[in-house]
Amino acid sequence: MPRNQKLSQPRSVKDTAQVQRKIQSQQQANDERDKADVQAGSDVPSSAPGPGHEVPTPPMLSQPLTKPGHEGAMITKPLYLASDYKGSGKLEGKIAVITGGDSGIGRAVAVLFAREGADVAILYLNEDDDAKETCDAIEKEGRRSLAISGDVQDQKFCDNAIKQVLEKFGSINLLINNAAFQEHASAIEDLTDERIEQTFRTNVLGYFHMVKSTLPYLHEGDAIINTGSVTGLRGSKHLMDYSATKGAIHAFTKSLAQNLMDKGIRVNAVAPGPVWTPLNPADRPVQEIRDFGADTEMGRPAQPEELAPAYVFLASQVCSSYISGIVLPITGSVAE
User: Fold this and answer.
1) 131 in a structural domain
2) Cα 311 to the chain's mean position, in Å?
3) Which of 112, 239, 252, 304 has its CA 20 to 30 A from that of 38?
4) Domain boundaries, position 214
5) Mind listing the pLDDT tens digit for each residue in 17-32?
6) What is the rounded distance in angstroms from the CA atom of residue 306 to the CA atom of residue 23?
7) Does residue 21 belong to any structural domain of this protein?
């Protein structure tokens, strides 16, 4: 980005969704320009078993999704209910805020937090139908829900969202930073200033904004959990800007953990590998999605319900009171 170029002003959720669709359209044109993609090898490993029940394995049935991506439109639905997971009151009486909580990992975390006794507020861009399904799932667990539409790129929205949470629930104990924007690129020349800014404003500035808005209401024993990525650990040649933001999130996690240690507020991150969520069909061509996750040693992508217990573990004081500043990789492969 040129030295003197300023970040754009905060946008409305409609404008942000429009920018995301524009970036998606630009990349689709780029993909048509260079079709010389190397096909994945045919030697696909057998897939590992799921969490007590069968889970989808490659080839994954999918279709193009328009950004920001609606889970309800997916042919192969992500699994988020974790029917084999039994709650035990680990988060009884807690209040949680989850960004990107309408679908994917955020939805699965919301369900398990509710099953463990927490009331849950989800923040999301404009996927109203997905947000309603998440709130319905929270309430089926016997807990209260709140859905707030807006853009975490905007500090004022984050401040107002936290005020709404406090007005309904009275307090906040857990912040889960999970909202993300991702769009692949075959060459660095495809990364315009606009799309780099969009990725960083959502994935990095959004995390900073939410922490700044929430921190005054957190106390000793409370926790912050950030969603990182295996791409932040290993890099990804087609996700250069996204990987850079995830590496920044990992560093932010460790730094914030040190900064808040004397307050007794723990800060950790989860670094997922490939997970079956709307983020990926809204990013990649259909032919690539068929083999999504096949290159892991487990031979398949994770389902959101397989990630959610890690967030419960890091959120619960009885489970992880002596853990702060870690980046927990859950990648489907042996950790390097």
Assistant:
1) yes
2) 12
3) 304
4) 91-330
5) 999 989 988 888 888 8
6) 30
7) no
Interatomic CA distance for residues 117 and 313, integer angstroms: 14
pTM of the model: 0.85
For residues 96 and 176, is the Cβ–Cβ distance under 8 A? yes
CATH label of the domain that carries residue 117 = 3.40.50.720
Is 215 part of a structural domain of the chain? yes
What is the tally of structural domains in the chain?
1
Contact 71, 278 (CB under 8 A): yes
The answer to whether 284 and 292 are in contact (CB under 8 A) is yes
- Cα 286 from chain centroid? 21
Helix (H/G/I), strand (E/B), else coil: 69: coil
Q: Which residues are marked as active site?
A: 242
pLDDT in tens, 50-96: 888 888 788 777 666 566 766 666 767 889 999 999 999 999 999 99
pLDDT at residue number 179: 96
- In this structure, the number of other CB atoms found within 10 A of the CB of residue 51 comes to 16
pLDDT over 80 (residue 278): no
What's the confidence (pLDDT) of residue 77? 83
Angle at 37 between CA 31 and CA 41, to 5 degrees: 145
User: What pLDDT, on a 0 to 100 scale, did the predictor assign at position 264?
Assistant: 98
- Output the CA torsion 56→57→63→67 (10° steps): 80
Tokens standing for 302?
């994770």
| CA gap 206, 201 in Å, rounded | 6
CA distance 176 to 211: 10
CA distance linking residue 288 with residue 296, whole number of Å: 15
Is 257 in a helix, a strand, or coil?
helix
Task: Assign 3-class secondary structure to 93-115.
Answer: CCEEEEECCCCHHHHHHHHHHHH
- Residue 9 clears pLDDT 80, i.e. is over it: no
115 is written with which tokens?
A: 């099953």
What are the tens digits of pLDDT across the range 177-228?
A: 999 998 999 999 999 999 999 999 999 999 999 999 999 999 999 999 999 9
